[in-house]
Amino acid sequence: MQNTDVIPELSFSLIESGDTYAIEVLSKALKNHGFFSIIEHGLSDNLVNNCYKSSKEFFDLDYDIKNKYTSVGTKGARGYTPKGIETAVGEKIADQKEFWHHGPVIDNSFDKKIPKNLIIDEIPNFNENFDTLYSELHKIGSRVLSVIALSLGLEDDYFEPWIKKGNSLLRSIHYPPVNSNLNPHRARAHEDINLITLLIGAEEGGLEVLNKDGSWIKVSPSSKAIVCNIGDMMQLVTDQKLKSTTHRVIQEKQTESKPRYSIPFFLHPAPSINLKSIFRNNDEGILANDFLDQRLKEIKLY
Prior knowledge:
Blueprint: E1 9-11, H1 12-17, H2 20-32, E2 35-39, H3 45-59, H4 63-67, E3 79-81, E4 98-102, H5 126-151, H6 160-163, E5 169-175, E6 185-190, E7 196-200, E8 207-210, E9 216-218, E10 226-230, H7 232-237, E11 247-250, E12 260-267, E13 274-275, E14 286-287, H8 288-298
Parallel strand pairs: 1-2
Antiparallel strand pairs: 2-10, 3-4, 4-5, 5-12, 6-11, 7-10, 7-12, 8-9, 8-11, 13-14
Helix pairs in contact: 3-5
């Protein structure tokens, strides 16, 4: 029997090949807490390293330079958001992090609500690196959604029209060192808004998932693993058959606080997609753009 107190780490190549045990473990994880890690996913180590190098170079810039790429006016969707802005739903204290938002390379075929990316002048190859990482994580995310669709009894390409011209978001995060005696919460307890999240960089430690019994499960993936989790949009359209679970990032008091970097990819549908139950025909649903706007207001990014 699978231990529900552990986030499973699975070979994605085995899952896609139809390995019975791997699929069974994945299905249980989706229903128990909506978190799992994948290895053998095909993401280039060199690409990841280049993006982390670009990310660190950007966050090392003076604040005045970073802030000229402010996300104000885009609902936080593009550019730089400084520390002390994003606040988890129901919380009064903001998260201790700064971040950069990057989206798809768009053309006229995309919804007009999806903004263009900002171009960073100070960091060579920054945009090229993140354009490539966005593209690669979108491909992996599409493959993960195919497996999820099959687990729900759907065709493997069920979600493809939702995300083909989607409003997905690549977030590069810097968590500065913190005084854990005053506030160990680098990112307070929250759920993700989107369909699924793919996270690289979780091996630095601090990510925890809320278990059904109220305890916190430490996520300890291997260095090349991608941590995947279900978001609120997926929970909504599956009538909570798949769980969008509360998680947080903390600084353990017995561990020296160092800068922490991570890069999550939030896979979103296009703004015009109606998020309605895939099981109930009488569900009226809600537009993805309206759902997103509502949540962005709640976390102080609107």
